[in-house]
Every structure is written in structure tokens, then in C-alpha cells.
Specification:
The chain has about 325 residues and is α/β, with parallel strands linked by helices. It is built from 9 helices and 12 strands. It has 2 domains: about 110 residues, Rossmann fold; about 180 residues, NAD(P)-binding Rossmann-like Domain (Rossmann fold, 3-Layer(aba) Sandwich). GO terms for molecular function: glyoxylate reductase (NADPH) activity; hydroxypyruvate reductase [NAD(P)H] activity; NAD binding.
Length: about 325
Amino acid sequence: MGNCETLVVKSGGSGALTEWRCEFDRLAPELDVRDWDDPDVDPDAVSYALVWQPSPGRLAAFRHLRLIISAVAGVDHILADPDLPKHVPIMRMVTPETAERMADFVAMAALALIRQLPELMSAQRDGQWLAGLTGRIAADTTVGIMGLGRLGLHAALRLRAVGFRVAGWSRGRKIVQGVTTYAGPEDLPRFLAESQVLVNLLPDTSETAGIVNSKTIALLPAGASLINVGRGSHIVENALLDALDTHRLSNAIIDVHDVEPLAPSHAFWHHPRIIMTPHIASIASRASRAQLAASAIRAVREGKPVPFLFEPTRGY
């Protein structure tokens, strides 16, 4: 792959560096893999950065940076850097394992919600034997997916295989076998009216911020459920909590949050009808992520197209 170049890593903490090095020693042994905070790193030798929540201003110090690799599928944690070098391309971490893990999580969450798992867990904590919490079956349930990109399509197919009816909504019209599809703002009300379980898998853009609010929730069937695996900024939290407390929504599983980690006092921690997870729905193994990162670095060196590049004009 050419001359030795430096890759700095900020993902998983300093304890994860040994594993990252083992993976890159196998995949790209000529790379000098260093910790993000290593004081001995020469900034001018850094060509690549694999990062999660990079410290503001640090990326700009690497004058010869050729590629920024997000450690996760989203890039908002990188774009938050006010000094981000805009000329450096950013790659999203979308491995085959990422899509598999997301599909598994969404299917698990949908089944958990229709079988009223949040309510059953709350009853267990309270020492209540509520044998009437039997929920409903997948075949009688329509799951609506907001966002039919790579992850959304994979989740849709998994839900179909489980037995759900599936609808999908995206910015542009898409044809997906076995899935009823909707597109654009004009189709959103019809899509929401059909979605007994709403899955948010939208990208983080100015158009999608706050899209799950009191108005959109009101368009869902009474007693609908919510799965948020998109971005925390998509959800107006007070509107969600109000809908749950008034039983407009039955329950929710929330994996992504506006501020992470959640404050200890946040209402999501102890709400009886919310299952909260710490942004783990689609985190792929380090082996899988290192493989994609190594192939992207190889593409940069060989002047070939890099997969899954962030496109600023689209917002994802």
C-alpha cells in the first residue's frame, strides 16, 4: 500500500488501542497506528483519523490529513467540531455488519414493543403479576420505517422476514418488494397513519431535526409505539414524554439521544414504558470496522473512489 503513514485513533478509549493495532497490523501493517492523545505523534505525519467525538480543533492540527473515518455510521459527532477542515473527506462507517446489527436491533425492538416488554419489565420491578399484558402478533402489525437508506432497507427486509407488514417513507420514491413505500412531505401523513410501530432511521439534516414532534405523533394510530435508532435530534423529547404519559403512545425504545450520555436525572432512565439503550444498535466489531477503514485508506492511496463518503449537500 505504499509508504508508512500515521493513522490516529479515537474510539473505544485508550484501552481499545491494542485491539485496533492488532487489526491494522493484519490488514495494513505499514500503517503507524497511534492513539489520538499520544503526545509523541508528529501532526504533520498524520494522514488518516479514525474517530468518535473528536476533540474540537484537533483534526485541524493535522495539516496533511487525507481522510477522516467516522467510527460509527453517523458523522454529526465530527461535524460538531467548529474547526473541522472542510476540505478533508469524511467516510461513514457502514459495514455489512453494521446493517446486520441494525436489522437485528430493529426486529428485536419491534417484537419487544408489540409484546409490551417495557410494561412487563416495569411490572416486574413493582412486583406486579400482570398476565393481561399479552400484546399482539407481528402479522397484525404494520411497522413504518422513516428512512430507506442502506440501514433502513436492511431493517425492512428483516421485519418482513419476521412477519410484520412494513411501510417505508423517504425523501425520494423507492420501490422495495413487499414494502409499501411513501415519499416526500405530501405522503408523510398517510405513512404515519399506517405505522403502528414507527422506526426512525433518518439521517441528521436540517430538514429532519425535530421531525418526531406532537404534530407527527398525533398522526400515528392511537397506542402506537416508537423506535428511535436515527438521531436524538429527531425527537422532541417533551412531546414524546407527553404522548407516553397520556397514552397517545404505548411505549418506546430509544437508542440515540440528543445529549450522550444521558444525565442521571433524565426522565428516560426510569420511565415505565421506555426502554433506553446507550447508542449500541448498530456498532460493528472493531475487526469489521478496521477492515472497512483499511480498504478506504487503500482507495485513497490508489486514487480510487472511497465508499460511503459524507455528502455535505445532502446532509449524509
